[in-house]
């Protein structure tokens, strides 16, 4: 989902009344970022509070390449990483993930091995359907065991776009909240639904209800679900004791537009890129009785801050034996403070850009290669900024492209290298970047090796269901990451 | 000002709390249009309820060219046109225009000859400063007589961007409202300020207060002024008896970006074009106690509807001896109805495009000429859609380009000519266009002839001020309209 997909963020069909209401009752973050313009690294960053380059969710197979966790990925979240639910457990929290895990699907990466107590959802994206010979369909798990596979047991009709998965995920969340409220236990719910990711789906009730087509139908179903979740908290009388945060894992995938792709509002390009369209996210904090209604914050925020903020809410300290990139947003949310901190825009192993205040400096520019572009893969459809949306990887380390995101949110007008404004801002940002790089210890890259043998052929529980498949022989190879 | 310039419409710095509050208390129109992507024709359309091609505010000097009323224009609003204030007079209204008139500056076009009772403002744009030999500075009028000139008596500091004009215009409006309330007289106030038009200015108090630079400062001053106007109505106890509508005369002028140009949100191109960025406008209706708070309407609306709606509010009928293009929006505003009507996108003498429902058909495409483009004049900076943002005038009459503005608000993905959806939608829209053209009687074009002699050399009142200038000899010529 993109920054521009919500009514509160200016989507022209304004079909998200519940999310807009959530914003009106809570606080809207206008300058909130993911840690990487792709799903897996973004989610790894959220749960560890650390940049993907630290937690291992990146590749060194190519320079500045996006990588994630397809079925043949060998790596996943390392045991050495401390995940938010692992830490919350110490404060008595019960942790549930509903939806897409995406931090590795091999047994050692199972979410219940990494702090979650419950899981209903899938380890990978809902791609498919596969014929079970080249690739198996993605399994859906309930806790330790798979309970079926997408397309086979959990239907997704690619022709009509119908699937009731978001409804299943909603019900899981409602039930979990009810259970926790009944037992008076504190809880962390990570509602990581995979709707609006292509192939886009919505349940029957929502199909055809949006001005925006199937993608809009999916957004409307999410909006409706969030409304039901918030209402549920209110009806159970725990809304004033429950902190809720809504955001996305990367910008809208314009490659899937117009039928399956969303909106990044006035920003440049989309998912896969380190332009604003790829990394700036819709974000809303909600906590009635604590967050002043109708607040708007220009705090530079990150999904990694949800790690630190959640720990703070639980009265816990972040781990002190490692670098944490997230910051505690509670002073921002509760007291309207602004914390001075940079935003680092990574693509794979490369720091492409950095933002401080309203200035953003690009040290590298790249949309995608000419080769990919000529195949019709376009991360910036209809947009073209000379020297900025480049199709070759362009280095600007010694003379970064600088944009003022207030006057120029669309990153169309690089500031003159000769201007005093440029000198001052670049000096400041480059200082922060040097400091960052000097102390950076990259983690072991987890997304370098792929192997058909590790696919979801026989996930735990497949025996009971008679759904075990025979894996091919192991043939590890370098994963190919063209973007 | 553009569609995307208000927080409520998704401007990322969200600095318009008063307009956003106005929207929260009133009704937001998301699909509201001007009648032409340029100032003079748009304002003529608003005040006559008629398309510029009918009321004469267009040129035939070139095909599909934008024209307006610079100082050397000979034409202006014809006497045969009935303006909103002329009609409102019959219902006892006192009418005031504050700000830019722009319907012709020669004596016969004076607003007090066309229904207004009071005027404080200028006949033309606040361009300048001029040295009074080639061109005089634009006069500012109080009612019949000029009271000074821009830059000379009404300062605009082009270096700092400081000018207190919006404050003067605000005070005029507040005083007029107070006077009318005191005398219990109904009133029509046309608050047609010229801020955010380049050269952009703001008063000292607002300079440097926006994240967006000088343009944002100007927006913030307008926002603050609107807030004060609404508060004034409330304090006088007449807010429930006063209908207020906020909108703009064309899309943001991206040619002036990033320092002096605004935002058209997710839409294509800007002012001067018939893409959405040129003609879709921010629009808010406000009338406490009558309009349900927080309403959102997808009614296709037009500035021309303000003519018909205002008449309706005054209990008057629109003239029956001529074609009126505006419709009465009261059923939409008060009862949430949707009225089926097309939107026609004109550029000069040509119907470039038409919208019905969510479909928009382009019969002609043009951004601007290669010649102008090569001079750096760009109405679509950073945007380029092959075959759509063309630099030659491309005719598509027999096979219009069709866009679905719900799925594709940015007009990036023309529908396939072969699709059933295309056939159905084009048949419908082209039928409406044929019907429109068959009955269209174009007015005498007013914007064809220019003459240096008609400039504001010696406006009425210049003698008293000692500010009369000698006009050159008359030398009428065809006006040059390159866009």
Automatic annotation (TrEMBL), chains A, B:
Enzyme class, UniProt record, top EC level? hydrolase
Reaction(s) this enzyme catalyzes, per UniProt: Hydrolysis of the 6-sulfate groups of the N-acetyl-D-galactosamine 6-sulfate units of chondroitin sulfate and of the D-galactose 6-sulfate units of keratan sulfate
Q: Which GO terms describe its cellular component?
A: lysosome
Where does it live in the cell?
Lysosome
Q: From the UniProt record, which GO molecular function terms apply?
A: arylsulfatase activity; metal ion binding; N-acetylgalactosamine-6-sulfatase activity
Give TM regions. none
- In which broad location class does this protein mainly occur, judging by the first location in its UniProt entry? other
The source's superkingdom equals: Eukaryota
Q: Does the keyword Transferase apply?
A: no
Point out residues bearing the modification 3-oxoalanine (Cys): 39
Q: Which PANTHER family match?
A: ARYLSULFATASE FAMILY MEMBER, N-ACETYLGALACTOSAMINE-6-SULFATASE
Mind telling me what this protein is named?
N-acetylgalactosamine-6-sulfatase
Q: Which organism is it from?
A: Sitta europaea
């Amino acid at each position: 989902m993109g920054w521009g997909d919500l009514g509160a963020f200016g989507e022209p069909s304004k079909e998200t009344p519940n999310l807009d209401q959530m914003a009106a009752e809570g606080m809207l973050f206008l300058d909130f970022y993911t840690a990487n313009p792709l799903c897996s690294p973004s989610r790894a960053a959220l749960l560890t509070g650390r940049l993907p380059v630290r937690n291992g969710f990146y590749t060194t197979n190519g320079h500045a390449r996006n990588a994630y966790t397809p079925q043949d990925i060998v790596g996943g979240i390392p045991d050495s990483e401390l995940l938010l639910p692992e830490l919350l457990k110490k404060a008595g929290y019960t942790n549930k993930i509903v939806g897409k895990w995406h931090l590795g699907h091999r047994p050692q990466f199972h979410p219940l091995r990494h702090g979650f107590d419950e899981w209903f959802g899938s380890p990978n994206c809902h791609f498919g359907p596969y014929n079970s010979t080249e690739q198996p369909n993605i399994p859906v798990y309930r806790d330790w065991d798979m309970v079926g596979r997408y397309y086979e047991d959990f239907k997704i009709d690619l022709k009509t776009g119908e699937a009731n998965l978001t409804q299943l995920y909603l019900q899981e969340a409602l039930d979990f909240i009810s259970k926790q409220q009944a037992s008076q236990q504190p809880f962390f719910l990570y509602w990581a639904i995979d709707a609006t990711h292509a192939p886009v789906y919505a349940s029957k009730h929502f199909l055809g209800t949006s001005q925006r087509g199937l993608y809009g139908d999916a957004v409307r179903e999410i909006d409706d679900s969030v409304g039901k979740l918030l209402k549920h908290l209110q009806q159970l009388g725990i809304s004033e004791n429950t902190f809720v945060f809504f955001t996305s894992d990367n910008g809208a995938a314009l490659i899937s537009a117009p039928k399956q792709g969303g909106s990044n509002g006035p920003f440049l390009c989309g998912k896969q890129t380190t332009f604003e369209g790829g990394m700036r996210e819709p974000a809303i904090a909600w906590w009635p009785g604590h967050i002043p209604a109708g607040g708007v914050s220009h705090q530079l925020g990150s999904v990694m801050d949800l790690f630190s903020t959640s720990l703070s809410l639980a009265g816990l300290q972040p781990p002190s034996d490692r670098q944490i990139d997230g910051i505690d947003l509670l002073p921002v949310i509760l007291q309207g403070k602004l914390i001075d901190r940079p935003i680092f825009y990574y693509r794979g192993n490369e720091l492409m850009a950095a933002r401080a205040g309203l200035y953003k400096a690009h040290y590298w520019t790249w949309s995608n290669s000419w080769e990919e572009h000529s195949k019709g893969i376009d991360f910036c459809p209809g947009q073209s900024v000379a020297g900025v949306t480049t199709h070759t990887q362009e280095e600007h380390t010694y003379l970064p492209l600088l944009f003022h995101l207030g006057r120029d949110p669309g990153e169309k007008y690089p500031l003159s290298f000769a201007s005093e404004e440029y000198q001052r801002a670049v000096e400041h940002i480059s200082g922060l970047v040097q400091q960052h790089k000097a102390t950076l210890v990259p983690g072991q890259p987890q997304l370098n090796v792929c192997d058909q043998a590790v696919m979801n052929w026989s996930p735990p529980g497949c025996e009971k269901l008679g759904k075990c498949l025979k894996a091919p022989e192991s043939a590890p190879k370098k994963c190919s990451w063209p973007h």
